[in-house]
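User: Let's play a game. I give you a shape written as tokens, and you guess the letters that built it. Ready? Here's round one.
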């Protein structure tokens, strides 16, 4: 007989008001995945950044079993590359959207806010962290974690890439049905690889595998859960 047990976690868009109030009273945490609509070569989906952040936070929710997961924010991503099939927004758009969202989350009652961005140019991450810092300075009882996933995985030598070795590892671990490495030919040199295939980093056909991706996911989840729980003891 198959095990029918299914881990459940709370998603804001599926909850009724009383369920939201109860969840906040137990643990006032909100998890917000942030992505972009940006070309990730031919083997990954265009919404990969947001999907990656969402699936990682789903794993966190399954582990911690506290707090509420929000829908992924795809619009407003700043400093996207000049790729086809890619949407571009200004830093002002990003700032206004995140500031408004965080302000309203806090007003509802959320005190621990996780902004996990799967899109991570330094300028984009800097804006998110600055918004978080200023908000926490004004609201002393708030805790905002604004990071990309690799900030918790530097000891693996993962400092970020684009549709390359590391991101494809995560794709194979989190959403294998959306990854098709057969779409990639033998890749040219690094410069041409970026221009022609939208890949910044090591060749995913050579270096990426699901097992390494699962190790990355497991370590990220363990560390993120520890950070979240320390925010609200």
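Assistant: Ready! My guess for every position:
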């Amino acid at each position: 007989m198959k095990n029918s047990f299914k881990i459940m976690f709370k998603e804001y868009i599926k909850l009724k008001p009383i369920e939201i109030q109860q969840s906040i009273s137990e643990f006032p945490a909100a998890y917000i995945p942030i992505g972009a609509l940006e070309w990730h070569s031919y083997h990954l989906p265009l919404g990969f950044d947001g999907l990656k952040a969402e699936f990682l936070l789903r794993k966190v929710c399954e582990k911690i079993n506290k707090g509420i997961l929000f829908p992924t924010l795809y619009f407003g991503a700043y400093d996207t590359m000049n790729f086809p099939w890619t949407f571009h927004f200004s830093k002002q758009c990003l700032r206004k959207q995140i500031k408004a969202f965080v302000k309203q989350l806090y007003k509802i009652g959320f005190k621990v806010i996780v902004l996990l961005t799967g899109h991570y140019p330094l300028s984009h991450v800097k804006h998110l962290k600055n918004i978080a810092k200023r908000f926490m300075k004004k609201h002393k009882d708030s805790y905002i974690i604004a990071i990309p996933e690799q900030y918790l995985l530097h000891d693996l030598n993962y400092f970020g890439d684009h549709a390359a070795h590391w991101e494809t590892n995560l794709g194979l671990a989190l959403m294998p049905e959306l990854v098709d490495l057969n779409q990639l030919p033998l890749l040219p040199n690094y410069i041409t690889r970026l221009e022609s295939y939208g890949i910044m980093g090591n060749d995913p056909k050579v270096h990426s595998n699901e097992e390494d991706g699962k190790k990355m996911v497991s370590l990220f989840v363990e560390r993120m859960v520890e950070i979240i729980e320390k925010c609200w003891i």
